[in-house]
Amino acid sequence: MEKRLLQLDYNMEKNVYMGHKKYLSRHHPYRLQKKNFDGKQEHGNPPQPLSGEAIYFKLKEMIFSCEKKCGKNNRESGNDYWKRRSNFFELPYWKNLHVRHCLNVMHIEKNVCMNIVGTLLDIPGKSKDGMNSRLDLVEMNIRPELAPMVTELDALQEDIVMTLCNLEKYFPPSFFTIMVHLVVHLVREVKLCGPVYLRWMYPFERYMKVLKSFVRNRNRPERCIAEAQVCEEVVQFGSDFLYGLDPIGLGSLNSREDKQIDKPLSTRTYVHPDMQQLKQAHLHIL
């Protein structure tokens, strides 16, 4: 049985099994492609499964120092496949069976779907595409377009360190608080978590200003915020049933075109209501 297991350098807990091009037909075009696979052409034949007798005689000569989980000891002795000798081989007919263990279709289907969905949706803890996976591609020298952009980030890290060193030459020690020091760790966080704008606090700080404007009584700030939020929701809900009304902001483009408002907010405008509008306004105030 040909060795198909590959130990990754960065995902060290993962054992991967590649080289499925061997199972294709002899003249399949995928066999000659290198860039989209592991960088090699495939001209070999698929490995033949070992018979029960071959496995039995192979395990018969092996010495296992532990029971189920002894992977590290087995790898040191050159054994990457077998962790223990099955007790079923003590049965006289077991080594003559063509199928000794049935594949669990339910768990195979579940794991395949979980890997596909978790990677495509980038689900934390389920995705197989991370920084270590990209570094494994670099180590295997395949798919350079998926390699992490570490060169520009490393140059940025060096610029940050040089800037801080220049600041140390002219500023007193009291200048270098913990917030100034945290600048050194920004590049590392970008490498691990992605762009900064996906995590910064600017939108939350802006919304805190909106909530702060709701407070009219400092003794009851939570009540003021709750009442103002409910009022905005009611106005927003009611505006859905009124034509041409924009509850917040400058309004939509159509409403501005209907009113012929093409000046900034600071420009003074004059409104001349007719008699009917005056009567309606007077009745509304009363």
Automatic annotation (TrEMBL):
**From what organism does this protein derive?**
Cucumis melo var. makuwa
Q: Which Pfam families match?
A: DUF4218, Transposase_21
Q: Where is the DUF4218 domain?
A: 151-245
Q: Which domain of life is it from?
A: Eukaryota
Name assigned to this protein: DUF4218 domain-containing protein
- Could you tell me which InterPro entries the record lists for this protein? DUF4218 (IPR025452), Transposase_21 (IPR004242)
Which PANTHER family does the record cross-reference, listed alphabetically?
DUF4218 DOMAIN-CONTAINING PROTEIN-RELATED, OS01G0348150 PROTEIN
